[in-house]
What does this fold into?
Amino acid sequence: MDVSKIKLRSLVLHSIPKAKAAEKEAGATGLTISDLAAALDATRRLFLEDKIKTALDSRARPVIEDPEAKSAAAAAIRAYLQAKPDDQDLVATSQALARLLYNEQPGISPAGVVLVADLEFAGSTALLLAKLDREVGMRAFTTNEHGQVQINIDYLTDLFVTAGTKVFKIAVFAAADIKNDQLVGNIVDEQAGGHEVARFFLHLLGCNFSQRPQEQTQHFFHGAEGFINSSRVPDAETKARYSVALLSAMQSQSKEINVRKFAAEHLDKNDRDAFVAAMTERGITTGVIKKDTELIKTRLKRVQIETDRDVFIMAPPDRLEDGTITVKTADGSEKSVVEVTDTVRRVTPHS
Amino acid sequence: MPTEEVLAAARDRYEAQLPRFERAATGIAAEVRDVAHGCGITGRFDGRPKSVDSFVKKALTKPYDDPWGQTTDKAGVRATVYNPRDLYPLVDALEAHWADRLAGPRQDKSIERDPKVFDYSGIHLQVVAPAEDDDDEVVECEVQVRTAAQDAWSAVSHQFLYKPAVAVSLASERAWYRLVALVEVFDREVEQAVTTVLDDSAYPQGRLLQDAERAFWQLTTREYDRGLSEMILSVAIKALPETERATYGDSLSTFVAEHRQRLTELLAEFGPETEVGRMPRYALLTQPEALVLIERAEHAQMLLLDAVDEVGSDMHALVDPVLAAWGRPFPILDV
It folds into this structure.
């Protein structure tokens, strides 16, 4: 998503305690519900926008409302976005969302702040819901008693966004994106790829991810392959190196693919931006993809080298990594040298 | 010598087709500019059609039997390079670019002439313009590639020697051609001086600051902290490939023109007189290098990230807020 088009207009905060099941069952919420919007000057707005844009740019995943889920939170958000501007009540909507989030979040969820904001997003009104966990920090302060200067420290336990805050739960929906009375938007959830218990945020919103991880992974794989075999990567040695890196990334234990991290770690400096641009051109997210190689698993078992004069070499990717097969650019020529160092077992006709 | 009827018909045809030759000249000039900038070559690149009276005068002066067919510079482009050392690289690059569109071999006046004679020494290429639907024949364009001194001599001598209002005496003619010696000396001296400047290790960064300052002052009249600029640009320059550096001023100006309103709002909203502008976290928002950082974030974010990563968290603390305020933050790679 293009986060450059986000502008924070107003926001309401509610304090949310650690969710204890027994207390919730007893009806004691411990919530501190705000009756007014938070004061928002330029400094605060810019700092919060920084954090929201950074998290959305890196981790946002498109979602669509599931009408069957009958989510009260989704209904509240939709009602807000579909109301006339004069009828939009941000405080009341935020209070409802805070209560719903508190009731939905599992017992292990830490205390924090629920932030509900009205945004301008690409010319449309949008509503943002975020849950920020409490953070701790220290502050130095100076006292001067009896002419003696002392610098002391405060241990702060009521922080909720610091310079180091990177990823937190965010959902953002724009009025212009509502289709057939369904919300369409983006969410960031650092835990969405993990255990089901951590997916309460998605459940709260009654949404599903728009694209299945299998398809996203396949799309990325084909996009990356297309880039590697394009004229942007001219020499065979680099193509081979990138291909092995792609296969390794696909087969690694990691549960996700961070597209720009892949570029930063495996591609030469001057190819990274072109790679990211190529992904964008193909409509592939440049953020994070939940990895599922189901649709490409057969492609990951073999790497194929194909030459202009119809020579094909098929091999397990490991053979390129362990040096059994090497691909180099021939000295003083545009040709490549592919070297296989092994014992020939058999040579057979192939149709 | 053409008959009066032939010449009149050619003139009328030329007058009628003048807009076509204007489009051809403008289009080829844009191609030359793109090729030059692609090679990191700076200069002036102008295209225009020959005026109708010049067309007639040339037909009468040469004289041509077929003034229409023999006048091959009806559309003309002048490429004037600032550094004489760029002359031949530009011609080579243009020939490669037009490999299947050149209408003949290059004409290198400096090679073709008698070494004992002083005369004009630009390089000419004849190229076919991209066809248009209504074309009834191939449209060609003459591209003259020159140094700034050659261009100056050519422009002035064209007026007083080639198209004089009064007859030129032999002594006067000799004086004009004698000047060519100075043109050659001037070009050699410029070449040497430019090489000295370019070889100075501080030049690329100094040039980048100039480019940033020029773009900055298109948007504001504010002063800035030069020391801070130098520190930030010593990092930002690593995100600017060497091949793009010579023409980066133009690229940055174009970027600023395209985003003028948003950039103006950004600088106004977070200027030094504002609460945000006084915060160290947003110190760069009031600096010219912010424009370079923003432009690089839009076009080479991964290169910029690598350059900032190389310095570490202190540099991130300064750069990240600028990019986030613009809306193109660095990606989070470590979560």
Notes: Chain B has a mean pLDDT of 89. The radius of gyration of chain B is 26 Å. Chain B touches chain A through 30 residues (CB under 8 Å).
